Amino acid sequence: MLFRLASILLMISCVSIYGQQLLPPIQNYQLLDYKGGTKNWDISVNERGELFVANNKGLLHFNGEEWTLNKLPNNTIIRSVESVGDRIYTGSYEEFGYWTKDEFGELGYTSLTHLIKDHTFTSEEFWEILPSKDRKVVFRSFSAIYSYFDDKITVFDPPEVVSDFIEFNGELVVAGGSLGLFQVKERALEPFRNQDLLIGKTITDMALFHGQLLVGTKLNGCYLFDGKTLKPWTEPVNDELKQHQLNKIRVLDNGLLGFGTIKNGMYLYDSTSKQFRILNRESGLQNNTVLSTLLFNDQLWLGLDNGMARIRLHNPISYYTDYTGTLGMVYDIARYNGKLFLGSNTGVFYFEGNELRFVSGSQGHVWDLRVIDGDLLCGHNTGTYKVTEKSFDLVSEIAGGYQLIKVPDQKATYIQGTYNGLAKFQKSDDGQWNVVRIEGFDDPVKQLCFETPEILWAAHPYKGFYRIHLGGDGYDKVDSIQRFTEKGAPSEYNVKLYNIKNNIVLNSEGNWFAYNPIGDKIEKFEEFKNFSNKELLFFDEQYFWFVDDEEQKAIIHTNLKGDSLIVTDLPLQERLAPDSQNVIKINDSTSYITLTDGFAKINNPRLQGFSETQELPVPYFVLLQDQENTYAAGNNLIDIPFRYSQSITIKVASPEYISPHYYYQLEGPKEYSEYDENGFINFQNLPFGAYTFKVSTVGMGNVVSDFNTLHFEIAPPWYFSWWSLFLYLALAVLAVYVVRRYNRRKLQRKHSELEERMKQEQMERMAKLEKEELAKEVKLKQNELASTTLNIARKNEMILELKNMLIMNKDKFSNSQRYRSFVKKLNSSIEDNEDWKRFEVNFKELHEDFFERLLKTYPSLTPKDLKLCAYLKMNLSTKEIAPLMGITVRGVEIHRYRLRKKLDMDSSENLSNFLITF
Description:
Blueprint: H1 2-12, E1 16-17, E2 26-29, H2 31-34, E3 40-45, E4 51-55, E5 58-62, E6 67-70, E7 78-84, E8 87-92, E9 95-101, E10 107-111, E11 126-131, E12 137-141, E13 145-149, E14 152-156, E15 164-168, E16 171-175, E17 181-184, E18 189-191, E19 203-209, E20 212-217, E21 222-225, E22 230-232, H3 237-244, E23 246-251, E24 256-261, E25 266-270, E26 275-279, E27 290-296, E28 299-304, E29 307-312, E30 317-321, E31 330-336, E32 339-344, E33 347-352, E34 355-358, E35 366-372, E36 375-380, E37 383-387, E38 392-396, E39 403-406, E40 413-418, E41 421-427, E42 433-437, E43 447-452, E44 455-460, E45 464-471, E46 477-482, E47 496-500, E48 503-508, E49 511-516, E50 521-524, E51 535-539, E52 544-547, E53 555-558, E54 564-567, H4 570-575, E55 583-585, E56 590-595, E57 598-603, E58 620-625, E59 630-632, E60 638-640, E61 647-653, E62 661-667, E63 672-676, E64 680-684, E65 689-698, E66 708-714, H5 722-808, H6 816-830, H7 833-846, H8 850-857, H9 863-873, H10 878-885, H11 889-902, H12 911-917
Parallel strand pairs: 60-66
Antiparallel strand pairs: 1-34, 2-29, 3-4, 4-5, 5-6, 7-8, 8-9, 9-10, 11-12, 12-13, 13-14, 15-16, 16-17, 17-18, 19-20, 20-21, 21-22, 23-24, 24-25, 25-26, 27-28, 28-29, 30-57, 31-32, 32-33, 33-34, 35-36, 36-37, 37-38, 39-40, 40-41, 41-42, 43-44, 44-45, 45-46, 47-48, 48-49, 49-50, 51-52, 52-53, ...
């Protein structure tokens, strides 16, 4: 009941919302952006587009990327600014002068007030600066005019208050407050004739327009002055200017005028069509008080009472924005009966001239607006309605009209996807719509697409997609439903369907698929492989509109054959609604794009109005910074120490372009080639070497400007410096020398060792030969000694035998004396020392120190013991020793026994072996 009562009330009174014409995008700069004061009194720009603003806290400088606040020495408010050549002149309280840049782009101030002679300030503030045609720079306060030329200042002190001045017809024209216009003649003010219309009216600004002087007053609008006659300006916008307190006049281009007001923002007036548009708080400005204006390269700058604004006047994309929040997010747009209708999440709206009106009874979420068979049908949250400016009539009670499409080859027959299945729409001959629910399918359907008149594809918001076979004579029921669940099929979430040139194309999670009717399966769609993660907004026979992923949100207009154009506009990127954006083509030259808080109108990208209307500016280098130093980015090569090169930042700017993007290339030991959205390009950990950095401005459609080039070189680290390399070379030479010297010494040592070895081997061979010779000699001597010893033994043995024979035949000797003589001689022969001496000499030659060592060890040995030891060392047997000693074998054994005792030997030890090894 409450809903029905609300509907009745809404139908009784037609709700209207203040509307506006489509406007170019407004880029606002707030206090936090430029970090200055509130009021921006004056604006100027230099030749390359750098902005200078007279601000409450000082001089603001904007290079297109960053704002810099420069304060006067006395910290006073700057009221006026004018860029002339390489100087920026400013005026403040009892002070004026100029600023110049140093090599790092920083501004330094030079005062000119010391040049004033014979004049005293009277609490003056300098509100305006005028560069005259004769190269003078003229400063204006309310009470005086100061002319600066050739380092001299001339002061003109008029009797009237000076509220404005301008050069007109070669003369300096001064607005004398509420007294009208004057011309300066020989340092005196001469009033113009016929100034009665300006008497009592405060002149705020003047501008040259079509060869005449357009004079603006505070509360009485504008007047035209041709040098002789003054008359009211009768244009329609003049009444608005009287009401909202005119402050500034700016002549734009192509007959366009800009009027800055105190109460209602900026009026853009087309003197040809007599139409005007308003840039104010309701259309996106931060406030309605315009203190200063500036036109540069189709960019209109506004200095506001609180903030700054920049507008590209002839932007190919214009916007309608609902700042009240009443309209909400726009889902669809349709043109019907010459009016533009909008379907949003709050209802249906239409434009009546510049006023946006609400269609009574349409409150609620609108999914679809479509002109079908002469009717505007609205797919609504509560059903489907027929819409006019004054009516909202129910056609179908089936809730949630997502999409309505025509059945191929059928007259006035349509299928609609709803919250609860499918509905069939048919229009009868009497203009009535007959709607029935199609039986056999009850799932929500957000998108529809016909493959043939009998086969319909439907997409569920969350459960995937279906291939539906319709049956019955009038499409009243579903015969069968086909699902695709095989491996590699698209995801079931948020599938989008399209019939592109008789191909069923699906988009799922950024991937493109197509239905293969021959194999009855879903396959990858190769024609769209370059458009992954992009949503198809609209297509016709020639071109496709894709929107890029959520990060960039650029619109791509392409024919898939290389003819592609990228539409990048910051307000468009910020206001596109993912998964809900829509392109509605009205005609060949105009399309609309739905936005989160309104819509955008875009010209055909192939028309001239969409291309760059001016040559893209070449960006300039602001500076280069490493981790420690800042370098002026001039034409000279920049040398960067390696220890500070881990992070290098290059700052570039293109102030002539709104929200510029950049394309840069780095050539050198390490190379990069990328796009950048701001002018702060950083490189990390570049290897040392020489680099060339190139950068260009990127415009609409990825068109790039000419490159600007910067050369810099990262010095090698200390261990790769020239001194280090010289040291390395010296060390290498030294190392070679040391190695060669070492090798030479090693070779000499080896040679010496080899010689020594050869000598040693030679000596060893000689020793061996000598040893062999000695061995031979020893052997000979041993043999000789053995032979001598054996001979002595045989001799003694023979003598003993003879002695024994004599003893046995003793009785046969008749003469006993003679017998004794024989025996004595035989004993003497046995005991002959000459044999022993010869034996001893030969023995000592073989064993020279044997007796000495033996006696030293065993001093109790007798000569006889020594004899026995010598014979035993020669390894003679007891039987062989007995004749040598002239004793019996038994005697030898007894002697051996006694010798063993003297040598303190155990009975188990072999006496001969002991003496042989002694």
